[in-house]
Amino acid sequence: MTNDAYRGIAAFFDTIFEPMNRGLRLIGVGMFRPQKGMAILDVGCGTGVHLDLYRKYECSLFGIDASESMLNIAQKRLRGAADLRLADAREMPFEDGTFDLVISMLMLHEMDEPVRGQVIGQMKRVLKDDGRILLIDFHPGPYRFLKGWLTKFVIFFSEVAAGRRHFRNYRNFMSIRGLPSLIETGGLILEHEKVVGGGGLVLCLLRKH
User: Which of 6, 78, 94, 166 suits 63 as a labelling partner, its CA being 20 to 30 A distant?
Assistant: First the structure.
């Protein structure tokens, strides 16, 4: 996870993917609107676009990512507004119970199956007892109408293009029912779920107790 798999595409990552991702991010912000002073962690923060949406709430912002090239772009975007760290999500460099909100978008599906559970465990560890986790990722359906099948088509071929290992992990993620399976095995409670993209994407707001 410490290899910089995004080095070759970091410079144009947002140009390609952000037009599709921004709507998802805004829905996620609407599912849990933070209060001033809250501590927020973005796991797999990439180029910092998601954290940038939370700046107006005057929260303490933190992000970790395994890609140095993506973090370099995030540093330029956020200009010191967030504490950004090069880190492995299996060993988050924070104390227990630090954050009010932990978010992660389109990251878990690309990980090896055993790693996903470790990352969920770390999210729980650094979350305050009354905090929330917001996960956004691909959803195995059922797909609704043309929009759902078009979403599946775009996702499928994007994952193929990402490489053999990435695609293998995506297929495994979908075969085990995606986020619902991880939430169940991770011992988290689903507070609110929103399925979008015709059934191809899901946002899950979770709590510990």
Answer: 166
Sheet architecture: strand order including 39-43: 82-86, 60-65, 39-43, 99-105, 127-138, 201-207, 189-196
Angle made by CA atoms 54, 59, 65, in degrees to the nearest 5: 65
What's the first-to-final CA gap in the chain, in angstroms?
A: 30
Give 13's contacts (C-beta < 8 A, 6+ positions apart): 6, 46, 47, 70, 73
CA distance 147 to 156: 14
Token pair recorded at residue 46 = 């990439």
**pLDDT tens, 71-112?**
999 999 999 999 999 999 999 999 999 999 999 999 999 999
Residue 142: is the preceding peptide bond cis (ω within 30°)? Answer: yes
